[in-house]
Amino acid sequence: MPFEFLKKILLMVAFLAVVPAHAQFWKKILATPGTPTAAEVTQGLKEALTQGTRKGADQVSKLDGYFKNPEIKIPFPPEVSVVETKMRMLGFVSQVDEFVLSLNRAAEDAAREAAPIFVSAIQKMTIDDAYGILKGQPDAATQYLKRTTSPQLKEKFKPVVQNSLNKVNATKYYGDLVGSYNRIPFVTKVNPDLNAYATDMAIQGLFVMIAKEEANIRRDPMARTTDLLKKVFNQK
Fold first, then answer.
1. Measured between alpha carbons, how far is 171 from 58 in angstroms, rounded to an integer?
2. Which of 161, 162, 169 minimizes the C-alpha distance to 102?
3. 204 closest CA partner among 68, 98, 111
4. What global pTM score does this model have?
5. What span, in angstroms and rounded, lies between the C-alpha atoms of 215 and 139?
6. How confident is the prediction along the chain (236 residues), in pLDDT tens digits per residue?
7. Can you tell me the distance from the alpha carbon of 88 to that of 86, in angstroms, rounded to the nearest whole number?
């Protein structure tokens, strides 16, 4: 029996013993010349996610990246929409508009500072994760990232968002609006957590754009900017 053929058989047995659920996948890797290895699949998916997160973050962190993008524009907090409606009725239109603008400016600013958190989280991806993502839905990588990192991202985003809110005076605008509303006779007083709302919406917007970039990489060969990305996604 030729040595190379024997070596291939032994490698196959070893792989199947470790990951029996993916027997056909590993069989294909070992049997098909030019097919990406498990390590290449994992690295390729990491590259795709890194590329998607950076491009998505670059898009939203530009001036009007949130504010003029209807998909991710952050509105007045819905749970206190009564405040917005009442204040507009009372003539505080420009103040409400300024607050909404400042809220989106804070998200744009936070995206520049916090996007690297996504990139560092990508390094935790395993071979099994990569295989599931490669064969999954068009946003499988984004969903993986959302599922595994959202709690940590929220915790790390909060101080960045809070600093950004303060920087663009969103906190002041909001305090003024809510304060004015709470002084209206007979209304139910409100005081929601602006930082939590802005943090959630900023992260949500980033995920929306990252998902679009992921779908683009899967769909468009021209979006695969490295040889490894081309090799991995051409085998999908």
1. 25
2. 169
3. 111
4. 0.71
5. 6
6. 443 433 332 333 333 333 444 445 444 444 455 667 777 778 877 887 787 788 888 899 999 999 999 999 999 888 778 888 888 888 888 888 888 898 898 888 888 877 777 778 788 888 888 878 878 888 888 898 888 878 877 887 788 888 888 887 878 887 888 888 888 888 888 777 888 888 899 889 988 988 888 888 777 666 566 666 666 666 55
7. 5
